[in-house]
Amino acid sequence: MATSRYTNRPAVVRHEFRWRDEDLWIDLKGELNTGERNRIRFSGIRIRDGEAAAVDFEQAIFEKTRTWIAAWSLKDDAGQPLPHGDIDVLRALKADLYDLIDDAVTAHAQTVEAASKKASAPLSQTSDAGRQSLISAS
Q1: Which of 3, 9, 104, 112 is within CB 3.0–4.6 Å of 15 for a Cys-Cys bond?
Q2: What is the pLDDT of residues 99-121, one digit of tens each?
Q3: Cα 122 from chain centroid (whole Å)
Q4: 3-state secondary structure of 20
Q5: For 24-80, how does the pLDDT look when each residue is reduced to its tens digit (9 = 90+)?
Q6: Which element (helix H / strand E) includes 2?
Q7: How far apart are CA 129 and CA 50, in angstroms?
Q8: Rounded distance, CA 112 to CA 11, Å?
Q9: Nearest to residue 39, comparing CAs of 57, 6, 64?
Q10: H or E element that contains 80
């Protein structure tokens, strides 16, 4: 895929933390693309034949974590990297470790969203009102 100023570049932000007696890190995506964002938004929604939509909150939480993580330092007993994109691996993590990771992902996502909103402010109301009055006058 071609890159442009309108598409995401694979930038990451490293978050280092200490869990028990071990220094660990996770690399989080600098921002999500539209497909990733929508996958998080709709990941927990389940629709069955003729029934109302139900929300699977566990799926939604793990999808958020999985989508934001680009890499991490977690390894298995043989020293091989644990696959960060595997929801079953996320489910199997010790609860206090997952909480540290989830807290970092949530804080990072909120920071990215706030920066994005600030950088993408809508046109001023004056501009909209001016357009409306020009349209009305014709």
Answers
A1: 104
A2: 999 999 999 999 998 988 888 76
A3: 23
A4: coil
A5: 999 999 999 999 998 888 887 877 777 777 888 888 899 999 999 999 999 999 999
A6: none
A7: 45
A8: 12
A9: 64
A10: none
Residues 92 and 72: their CA atoms lie apart, in Å, by 15
Packed helices 34-42 and 57-68: angle between N→C axes, nearest 10 degrees: 160
CA dist., res. 26 & res. 69, Å (int): 7
Exposure letters 53-82 (e unless 16+ CB within 10 A, then b): eeeeeeeebbbbbbbbbbebebeeeeeeee
Cα torsion angle, 125, 128, 131, 136, sign: negative
Which amino acid, 129? Answer: A
